[in-house]
């Protein structure tokens, strides 16, 4: 190839974003071989069509890929390359989370203080409760505490609470063995999700607090640590205490209500409670909507919700029937099981354009 069509290593380095020393290293590794090497001077020359591979190699190395993994991506087709990149990212994230958890354990061990016993629970019970309440969390970089689960313990009860500012879910558990500690902290939600299998398989789960984690100790003696979040949790107790009394109560079968919500077009749905039952329709739709048999007490009301707020609140309720305590437009609706009241969810409505 004529030299006029080739780039010396310095020019190629500027175009690819790699240093000359990196290019020499990749050439020696066989990942990016020069198009020509002058036999007298040893100068290396590259073609223009090698820039894309060089830039891709740079990007892959910047996200921490090994040489072998980067070569496999560069030599693969688009589909296989994407899968290899996804696998690398998943492993990197898992490794980072493992480091973060282990760092919290190490920090807690620095004081040398023993863990504070909080409660003993039958493992399958808190596992189910954690899954239910965690549906009300949110991943918000500006407020990471919204991704956590608030845990409050007394000798009589363990209360779990989560909120994404549009929903608030809370459930109270009775410990298998009474503890003496009154304690409150916010536990990393992702750590709890990772620990769910361990929790569920523990006939008896002992929960202890350390300075930076809660320790979950199963009957087999194996421990799992979940990090504590330092940011202040939203004042959910004030929210619950300031709720006005519900004026209208609706008792409705859960599954038909969920199906009606699924079938509504758009992102918002309106619930209209009347003496004849509950009607579900798309927000802003003046039509009658889907009628559902329901027991309604109190004044007729019409309230609209984002589907992403209402649907999980109804879906996590225990049992075949749910209670909806309505307070009117703009005020939280309480959603809970009709026969088991240990899980309660508040859902914030939205403004609706038409509710005749």
Which features would summarize this protein structure in a list?
356 residues, alpha+beta, Multidrug-efflux Transporter Regulator, Chain: A, Domain 2, DNA Polymerase III, Chain A, domain 2, 3 domains, 4-stranded antiparallel β-sheet, 10 helices, 33% helix, flat
Describe the structure.
The chain has helices at 9-16, 20-29, 51-62, 67-75, 78-109, 124-134, 189-200, 236-241, 254-263, 307-315, and strands at residues 7-8, 36-37, 44-46, 116-121, 148-153, 158-163, 167-173, 183-188, 205-209, 213-217, 223-229, 248-253, 268-274, 277-282, 290-292, 294-297, 301-306, 321-326, 333-337, 343-347. The model has no long low-confidence stretch (mean pLDDT 89). The strands form 3 sheets. It has a 13-stranded antiparallel β-sheet, with helices on both faces. The protein has a 4-stranded antiparallel β-sheet with strand order 15-14-13-17. It is 33% helix and 29% strand. It is flat and about 95 Å long. It folds into 3 domains: 3-75, Multidrug-efflux Transporter Regulator, Chain: A, Domain 2, CATH 1.10.1660; 116-235, DNA Polymerase III, Chain A, domain 2, CATH 3.10.150.10; 243-347, DNA Polymerase III, Chain A, domain 2 (Roll). With 356 residues, the protein is an alpha+beta fold. A hairpin with a 6-residue loop joins strand 2 and strand 3 (44-46). It is built from 10 helices and 20 strands.
């Amino acid at each position: 190839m004529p030299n006029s069509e080739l780039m010396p290593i310095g020019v190629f380095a500027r175009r690819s974003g790699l240093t000359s020393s990196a290019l020499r290293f990749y050439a020696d590794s066989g990942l990016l071989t020069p198009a020509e090497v002058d036999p007298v001077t040893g100068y290396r020359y590259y073609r223009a069509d090698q820039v894309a591979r060089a830039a891709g190699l740079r990007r892959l190395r910047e996200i921490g890929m090994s040489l072998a993994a980067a070569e496999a991506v560069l030599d693969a087709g688009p589909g296989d390359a994407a899968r290899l990149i996804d696998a690398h990212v998943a492993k990197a994230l898992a490794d980072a989370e493992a480091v973060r958890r282990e760092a919290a354990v190490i920090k807690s061990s620095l004081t040398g203080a023993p863990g504070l016993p909080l409660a003993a629970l039958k493992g399958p019970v808190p596992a189910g409760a954690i899954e239910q309440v965690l549906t009300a969390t949110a991943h918000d970089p500006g407020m990471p505490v919204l991704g956590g689960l608030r845990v409050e313990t007394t000798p009589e009860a363990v209360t779990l609470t989560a909120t994404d500012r549009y929903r608030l879910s809370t459930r109270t558990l009775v410990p298998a063995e009474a503890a003496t500690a009154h304690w409150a902290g916010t536990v990393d939600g992702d750590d709890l999700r990772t620990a769910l299998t361990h929790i569920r398989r523990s006939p008896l789960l002992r929960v202890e607090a350390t300075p930076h984690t809660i320790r979950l100790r199963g009957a087999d003696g194996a421990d799992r640590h979940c990090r504590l979040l330092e940011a202040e949790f939203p004042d959910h107790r004030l929210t619950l205490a300031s709720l006005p009394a519900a004026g209208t109560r609706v008792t409705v079968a859960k599954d038909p209500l969920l199906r009606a919500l699924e079938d509504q077009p758009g992102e918002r749905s309106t619930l209209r409670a009347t003496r004849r039952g509950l009607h579900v329709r798309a927000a802003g739709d003046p039509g009658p909507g889907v009628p559902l048999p329901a027991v309604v007490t109190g004044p007729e009301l019409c309230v609209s919700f984002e589907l992403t707020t209402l649907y999980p609140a109804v879906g996590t309720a225990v049992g075949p029937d749910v209670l909806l305590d309505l307070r009117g437009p703009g005020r939280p609706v309480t959603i809970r099981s009709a026969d088991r009241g240990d899980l309660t969810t508040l859902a914030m409505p939205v403004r609706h354009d038409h509710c005749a």
